Amino acid sequence: MSLKGQSLELFYVDGHPDGMVTAELYNWTGHVLMVPRTQLGDALKRSEPKCTGVYILIGDRDGTPFAYIGESDDVGGRLKNHDVKKDWWNSVIFITTAGDKLNKAHVRYLEARLIAEARGIRRVELENGTAPPVPKLAEADAAKMEAFIENLLIVLPAVRVDMFIERTRPATKGAGAGVIRIAGPSGQVPQFFLETKKHGLRAKAFLEAGEFVVEAGSLARLDWEGVGSEATSYGQLHAELKRSGVLRPDGARSVFAENYAFKSPSAAAAVVNGRPANGTIEWKNEQTGQTYKEWEARNLAAGEQGAPAQDAAGA
Questions:
Q1: Where exactly are the structural domains of the chain?
Q2: Distances (CA, A) of 121 to 53, 164, 227
């Protein structure tokens, strides 16, 4: 995926963020329209659903995130059928182009690639049956569709579609030049650990490119603790990682099968402990014994004084 900055434009059709939203990137022909199910009737009056394109139904079934990816030369007309037969979805994403420039071969290619991408990432369950094979396109058309997908995967998170965000990481840290790890005032790249002796847990983590990455082999609670709290965002994340196979049963505990990037130390600590946790004090620096909070404060102070705060690793 491109590392260059991108200019993204969101337009709230009804003037508020919970309604229909359009999203476009500068200098990209693609167009994304996110529609709550309650507004499908209004959406079908617009021009986008009359185009050839791909659509994604998003919702949940029995508490499990669920999705369906389809294509049509009339995505709005196809949705009328789904609206009658499927009751689990609560929003739909229409993916089309300005000027209706996609053809049937293009959207079949996009559908197959997006299904494969979602199955590989495993953040949602797909209602799609067997994954369709990726159709063969002329070399130039295939290159155009791959560029289209690259931009699409930048746009979708902006309309609250995170099923294509890959949060597992390669097992070898820092492979290749240009990987940036956040270092302390000494210039050393810290390794953090979390230990909960009561449950026999020990996990390791590191910071990379602004993400808190728990390493493969780290031990976590097998189940989420506390009745009712499993409905919290961290409880749902714990369940998602078990469902996707990132957390795998290992006797009375779970083990991280892959490196996994969390948005914060607290999210990582909660998943490891199987309960809400303050990761800034539960994670500790292996080199110094400082809590993450103490390490961060020292690192910020050093940065203010002009000391180097980052080192490039893997060069």
A1: 8-159, 179-308
A2: 23, 7, 29
